[in-house]
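Two entries, shown back to back:
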Amino acid sequence: MKKVRKAVIPAAGRGLRFLPATKAQPKEMLPIVDKPAIQYIIEETLDSGIEDILIITGQNKCSIENHFDKSVELEIVLKEQGKLELLAEVQRIGQLADLYYVRQKEPLGLGHAVYCARQFIGNEPFAVLLGDDLVRGTTPCLKQLLDLYEKVQSTVIAVMEVPPEHVNRYGILDAVEESQGVYRVKDLVEKPPLESAPSRLAIMGRYIIEPRIFPILAETGPGAGGEIQLTDALRQLCREQAIYGLAFQGKRYDVGDKLGYLQATVEFALDRLDLAGGFREYLRSVCQELFKG
């Protein structure tokens, strides 16, 4: 039985939707409360049982490597000031996982970013997690995909039904439900207009992919947006091998979108014991002011 041992996190995008904040700061390092978004992704990967993680980086992404590296000077300062809880947290971050890095020299699209992982992955199935998508639930989203992969031994994609007006933002499945929440994919299309979309089942930012995707990506030309789209390569893979969609359990936040980012920040803060009380009172006062009269 094939096992998934490695994960890829593409983090080479420009983050244009968050300019000017991302002019010199990677969007993946924007904090949700006090933790960068990419750290949530890495912790989900570890909680799912995968410890070998490749991050695809690009220009101005050095702070990602610095964040997960050991920080000797900071540790000395924290120790001298007796801030032992913060010291332990900083040390924990530096020891989270075996992280590897490859640079995508040109921002040619998600498909090209995944292709940059081919030497690291070799000839084995692998996970892909996008840093724009945070998912919270009882069982990590990636673990749910891994559990299905163990049964089907074929490519698995996380999916969610989206409102009609959002269909043109995502890769969309043409699929048949085989069992509750599990879909056998017949076709995929990247960001279709609503009138030609085969469904409202949208691809979210989690995948388990067979290595056959790499030679397909090598032959995949630019698609939507002039970029090499992973969805286009998956469409070809679907003609050769079975692909399944999994309607995962959990709440998904699109933190690559400003509204989604704000929603995640508010809800994550409300889940914090050290913040929830005071923050809830603040929100209550804002709502009272906003809706009075």
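entry 2 starts here
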Amino acid sequence: MFRRKTDRSPRNGEEENPFLLSFSDLMASLLAIFILALVVMMIQLHLQKRKLEEDRKNIVVMREEYEKMLKEKETLENERNRIRLVLAELRKSLQEIESTQSEVAAALEGVGIREKSLASMLENIQKDLKQQGIQVIVAENGTVLRIPENALSFKLSEFNIQDLYKDSADIIGVTLLKYLENDENRKLLDTVFIEGHTDSVPNRQVMGNWGLSTYRAISLWLHWTDNPGRLAKLKNLKSAVREDGAIERPLISTSGYADTRPADLNKAGVTPPSGVGNPADRRIDIRFTLVSSEKKDLSELKGQLDLMGDIINRLNETE
């Protein structure tokens, strides 16, 4: 009834080894760990690949930016070189302008000296005539000898020299010849104009007041040179030969201005009765023009060159 318990022998004659079971479990665990590490490594490789791609893109962008910077630097350097060349040319040009400025300033100084010499000559003529009882007026900044009505005047609408004024006309002509025969004085002058003027009363003769004023200037000229012609030497006066080689020509000319240039001697503002006119306007002026008629142009040019001088100073301070 009772069976004796007996130990079973392992199949195939082998006994179960506990160590083998533990090793299998260990290998399975190691495999799992390996697989997990492999997954982690794959993830890291993927992330590194993405990072490398981003870095590559960044490198490409940076390279493009760098190349752009190089081009901009090259463009900037070229522009700097161009500006340097332009500045060098400008400095050279401004140096030439500066030289011209000095020449213009010297020319203007020469004009000023001639103006003073002319004013001095007219003052001397005025003094000489005053000593002979004739009071003339130096007008328009020392360029005009104005002969007042008490020394030489004309009847209304007439142009002939009246007998009572012929002696004073001769004295004025003699004094004028005296100064114009001087070579140094003639070197100052371009032209001496005998200018005829009228009052505002309309003249009904041919060419009106324009013709009348011109005939008055011609009448005085003919009195001096033809009838009676005691001062015919005035015809022979020529403009001085200038350094620019200008052709020598007669020094004295005549002109008429009608009533366009009143004497304005009536300081009180009293208007003469209608149809009578102002005797002071029926007159002769003797105008002296300097050789340097370019004074205005020189003055304007000097103003421009002064501005250029400021530019020169600023450029010289620029490195």
